Amino acid sequence: MSYPPPIKACDRRDSWAYDTVARRLSEICLKIIPENEFSPEIVGNLEKLAADIPQGTIRHLLDTDSRDATDWQNYIQPYLGQSWLEVPWFFAETYFYRRIIEAIDYFRLQIDPYLLQKKLGLERSHSSIQVLSQKLNRSLKDADRVQTIALIHASLWGNRVDLSLWPAEHGDRSISESEQEKHRILADDSDRTVDLLQKRGDRVDFIVDNAGFELFCDLCFADFLLTSGLSQQVFIHGKSHPTFVSDAMVKDVLDTVNYLQNHSELEIKRVGDRLQDHLDRDRLSLRHHFFWTSPLAWWEMPSDLCQNLADSNLVIVKGDANYRRLLGDRYWSFTTPFSEIIGDFPTSILALRTMKAELACGLQPGQAEWLQKEDPQWMTNGQRGVIQLSVKA
Ligand SMILES: O=P(O)(O)OC[C@H]1O[C@](O)(CO)[C@@H](O)[C@@H]1O
After folding, report:
1. Same domain, 210 and 90
2. What are phi and psi of 55, to 5 degrees?
3. Molecular function terms in GO for this entry (predicted)?
4. Last residue of some domain: 58, 83, 113?
5. Lower CB density within 10 Å: C or N end of the chain?
6. Is 224 close to ligand 1, i.e. is its CB under 6 Å away?
7. How far apart are CA 194 and CA 146, in angstroms?
8. Rounded distance from Cα 356 to ligand 1 centre (Å)
9. Could you list the mean pLDDT of each consecutive 10-residue stretch along the chain, which spans 393 residues?
10. What is the pLDDT at residue 339?
11. Does the CB atom of residue 329 touch ligand 1 within 6 A?
12. Parent domain of 220
């Protein structure tokens, strides 16, 4: 398969990639200092990292005794000495978040620098959590096609709540008017997804994205699949260390279930209790893997993870950064079919993505041109989404 070139920040100065590397990364780095009580040494490390972007150059990691150090040595080697703007954008971002892990001595101190943001994100989406809990508890009485599609859409729009772009103090982005939003879904394979789940949905895997409200939506979908009997087993795959500000780790899943179980409102508590019961009976299982924090493309997935996912009936890939990994963060033509890029992955894949980066595929001819006139920010403002399914025969 020949791949188009990877996106680089230096490609276009008016691009979201350029703005991210040239401005946003150092802002994200400095923002965690006042939100944590780090030692002066760690504060110094973070200030140095922020000052190094974007004119500094790529260097090897210093925390060479960490479990992922050897892998990162190999990822970094081809880009040594290049500037943050010249290297592939996806590498620059995943490397940046790994440099923060080094700067805060995470693997020794285990302090999640984004914990405050994650907590605020969950608390600030209370009214949406209330609404979705009521809908879910009601929908379990007759778990039909309409209900299943409603949970797919809730899981999609939950991805709008990305704290790396819109910090929790900027207000509650979880409000959803699902009916009106249907036209914002640029490719919608919901119906085909229900067909697949009804035919063979025994095991479903979620490659989750943001903790907080999005994770709650994903856990509601998982609960719906298990309680309705559509699935017997659900695996949640999280990140091995804090990254992209709000991305979820296994700890964040357990914290969220705990938050729901201890909630004073019965409708919300009922969701938490069911989730805990699924965990206790190993119907819901939690996993993490360093691939999800690496700069690698989907087709570079290590064989152990590939073999594990091959046993699944459906892998649900959440969010924009994971979608960029599916596409190798490359300049595909917007009409390239999704399944063509996914190619021969060992099982069926469903991508649920709200658009927050300048890449896309699986659109109809003329659709991108029309959207460009309608809303020049259509690719990055998170107001549009895709529900794209690639079925493994
Ligand atoms: O939380 P998500 O959906 O993966 O979005 C991550 C965001 O961060 C980015 O990496 C830009 O910093 C884009 O992928 C996207 O805008």
Report:
1. no
2. -80, -15
3. metal ion binding; methyltransferase activity; phosphatase activity
4. 113
5. C
6. no
7. 9
8. 6
9. 94 97 98 97 98 97 96 98 98 98 98 94 92 94 89 94 70 58 92 96 97 96 97 98 97 98 97 98 98 97 97 98 98 97 92 97 98 96 96 90
10. 96
11. no
12. 119-390
